[in-house]
Design a protein that fits this description.
81% of the residues lie in helices and 0% in strands. The chain is an all-alpha fold. The chain starts with a helix and ends with a helix.
Length: 81
């Protein structure tokens, strides 16, 4: 793989790790009651039709779907620790 492509991938991965490190403490500080309230509010929004299905929001953007899949895989790895 050419160096510039490797550098671009490495840069993107570092951005993702930095982003995860910034968000992790915020998620950790969220109480179960707050998560429950958020889930209830989200369900109300969905029932009221005030949401957009992710497929409609992202369309067929392969890059967006790739990062969603990569993020989900990363989350599974974190849960195993």
């Amino acid at each position: 793989m050419p160096d510039d492509i490797q550098d671009a991938i490495a840069s993107r991965l570092l951005e993702e790790v930095t982003d995860e490190q910034a968000w992790a403490p915020l998620f950790d500080a969220t109480s179960d009651a707050q998560w429950t309230a958020l889930a209830r509010a989200t369900r109300r929004e969905i029932r009221a039709g005030r949401t957009t299905p992710i497929e409609d929001a992202l369309g067929d953007s392969s890059e967006a779907w790739f990062w969603i899949g990569a993020h989900a895989g990363y989350e599974r790895l974190l849960r195993r620790r």
